[in-house]
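Hi Y.,

Following your request, here is the sequence exactly as I used it, all 199 residues.
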Amino acid sequence: MAKKYQNKYRIASSRLQNWDYGCNAAYFITICTAHRKHYFGDVVNTSELGISMQLSKIGLLAQKHWLEIPQHFPFVHLGEMIIMPNHMHAIIVIDKPDNERNGRDGRDAINRVSTVTNPELNNAGGITGNKNPMLTDNLSRIIRWYKGRVTFESRNIHADFAWQTRFHDHIIRNDESFKRIQEYILTNPKNWDKDKFNI
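Below is the corresponding structure, written out as tokens. Let me know if you'd prefer a different format.
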């Protein structure tokens, strides 16, 4: 089968090769809505606040669930974040204690997948075995949880709500980069008129 299609329909991963996305690091995340549709609100200019985001109900959900991430993933610290009309930017820091196991909480509520290991059945992670991404506390699992929560509740408000399939990440490697990205996030509403996501 692989020869027949010769990877023609395979979508290459946007993740950095050979990087463990479960290891301790700071990441700059961008997640867009499907077709960059404006679900999250509008950039407005008011005399009291200047240029800022006025969040819709779905925008408020996106903000609320992002701030809840550390409750579900205690090894996560959140940096600056901004919800824009059709995307969000945020800094997320994975900071696991050295002796922490690669988390297995036993159940993935969003996908209703049991991740409990049964030694008698030798079925850890289902058919994917220990390669099941739901067995690993990594960036993809965090974002999957977040997107799932927002989608589930947003569809009660707008039945067509959807995210783009993927998300963009950038590994923040030093303090200078951290400060530059933080400033970019904070000033995003002011620069909306020339933002590449403004379509």
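The beta strands are 25-32, 41-46, 50-55, 76-83, 87-94, 107-108, 113-114, 168-172.

Thanks again,
Q.
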